[in-house]
Amino acid sequence: MKIIFKGKHIEVTDAMRNYIEKRLNKIERHFDHILEVIVTLSVEKNRQIVEATLQASRALIRAEEETDDMYTSIDKVADKLERQIQKYKKKYFQKPHPGTEKIGLANKEINIREF
Span of the secretion signal (predicted)? Predict the structure, then answer.
């Protein structure tokens, strides 16, 4: 997983980078098809804003959060991404895969002809 850090009106420190990487690695344990994550940190007056765009193999997931503390914003964005990935994973893996219905119908036709 490639992580790209961007800062608007703020310098992204090594401590912030390490904290974000630690939080995103927890997400990667749930879903290993993540290709790239773009994290944008910005400051506007008293608001600390974190935006994250996650590029997976078949999905683009985005989360944004703003609070008074940058680390709280990072935590909330990571939680949002985790919830969205779990939702995507649930939806993706519950879909019937192509070809499975045809096999089932072919077996039923054979059983009907045998009787």
Answer: none
Distance of CA 34 to CAs 17, 57, 60, 110, Å? 18, 6, 10, 42
Nearest 10 degrees: CA dihedral of 52, 30, 98, 113? -160
Q: What is the pTM of this model?
A: 0.76
Per-residue pLDDT of 24-79, as tens digits, reads: 988 888 777 888 999 999 999 989 999 999 998 888 999 999 999 999 999 999 99
- Nearest-angstrom CA–CA distance, 41 and 18: 14
3 state DSSP class of 38: strand
Class of domain 2-114: alpha beta
